[in-house]
Recover the amino acids of this structure.
């Protein structure tokens, strides 16, 4: 793979954008450009078209998104512009310059019913504004271009930005007990690990839809318990159901109870799965300590 390949990354200030730039530079790529909202408003169709056609990248890794799930319920129009129209405009511009596109999507495109693992081609039926708009973003990408990687992830944590792990560390250091949901089951995604997979992907032409999370299925309460254990915090984690939690903290978006996603598409394409979630958490806590 040519190391002077031009790679454009959106959402550079987010957890994943940060790690993608780091990984590409480690691999010796010399032509990596990271942008965020002050550089380009992805909801402005003509601005997107102008920026991408002038820059003329070989690859666009589109990580920017509206991810505030509860707040999204109050402003569906705005979220639609960011999560659905933004990817549409980027995909159309990618087609024009014949660039590969990576679009980061989410487990929230599914309704979370049942207990079996969702396959990449299962029917989508997002419960929330966030889930629905990310699903619409996927559809726009797949209808605009053929050279795409749509990668669905869940429960994300990384060095750069806020996430569940950082919240638990804060709460765990100042509270003796906390309530965490125990009936939403899924997998975590460490952006450091994911960035390696995404960089592997763009070095191929194995286009399609993939599920990519760290190995292992757990509940949020299991995750919180392991965070406390690995960080040596004495905070007790009380397991509560989603219904109980909604009574304690009202006005929340609906979240899928089942976020189990099958990795068959990764296996079939010959990509490596991400490491086990406990291992990922351990390395992440060390990363936070070091920095």
């Amino acid at each position: 793979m040519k190391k002077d390949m031009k790679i454009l990354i959106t959402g550079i200030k987010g957890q994943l954008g940060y790690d993608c730039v780091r990984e590409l530079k480690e691999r010796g790529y010399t032509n990596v450009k990271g942008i965020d909202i002050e550089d380009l408003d992805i909801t402005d169709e003509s601005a997107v078209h102008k920026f991408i056609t002038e820059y003329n990248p070989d690859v666009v890794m589109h990580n920017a998104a509206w991810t505030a799930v509860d707040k999204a319920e109050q402003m569906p129009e705005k979220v639609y512009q960011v999560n659905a129209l933004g990817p549409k405009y980027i995909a159309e511009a990618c087609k024009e310059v014949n660039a590969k596109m990576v679009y980061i999507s989410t487990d929230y495109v599914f309704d979370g019913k049942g207990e079996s693992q969702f396959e990449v081609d299962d029917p989508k039926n997002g419960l929330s504004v966030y889930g629905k708009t990310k699903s619409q973003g996927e559809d726009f990408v797949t209808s605009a271009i053929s050279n795409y990687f749509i990668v669905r992830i869940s429960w994300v944590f990384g060095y750069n930005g806020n996430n569940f792990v950082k919240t638990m560390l804060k709460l765990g250091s100042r509270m003796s007990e906390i309530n965490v949901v125990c009936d939403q089951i899924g997998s975590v995604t460490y952006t450091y690990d994911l960035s390696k997979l995404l960089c592997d992907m763009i070095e191929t032409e194995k286009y399609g839809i993939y599920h990519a999370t760290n190995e292992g299925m757990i509940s949020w309460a299991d995750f919180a318990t392991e965070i406390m254990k690995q960080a040596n915090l004495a905070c007790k984690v009380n397991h509560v159901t989603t219904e109980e939690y909604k009574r304690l903290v009202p006005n929340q978006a609906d979240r899928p109870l089942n976020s189990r996603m099958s990795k068959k598409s990764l296996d079939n394409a010959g990509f490596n799965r991400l490491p086990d979630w406990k291992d990922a958490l351990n390395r992440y806590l060390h990363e936070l300590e070091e920095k």
